[in-house]
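Reopening this one. Same input as before:
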Amino acid sequence: MAGISAKKEAPVNFLTDPLEGRSTLRPADILVFGWEGGKHACVDLTGVSPLVGLRDHGFVAGHAITKAEAGKVAKHEKACIENQHVFVPFAFDTFGALAPDAVRFLKRVQQVVSSNTAHVKGQNFVFSRVGFAIQKGVAAQLVARLPTIGL
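Same output, byte for byte:
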């Protein structure tokens, strides 16, 4: 199995807001080259709070990420397909849960990591690294919202 080649914030001229009806030259969060059948994959990272909609629906585990994933698919998948690309919504919540497409994506990345390393740091290496990155991002947001205390 070969490695994975990707670019962060890669410019693709076809990802638009369908309501605007014009190209916004929005970059793909991650563009993975030759991901599926020789087609490049536009990976859209989306983080949501699992408490979104709590007032309306009560708490349902996974509801926020499922809704976020479906929204991204509705917004970008057609444009990607029309431009010979694959669309991968990568939705996660701030508690660390991952949407099904994100899990499939990471499992494939894990396979590549496992096949290209002499020693594997455990089967869940990729998942634990992503979990840590989510925790770090949430912590940074919380610290940024702390009130400043003048001494």
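So the earlier flakiness isn't reproducible anymore. For the record, Residues 33 and 147 are 43 Å apart (CA to CA).
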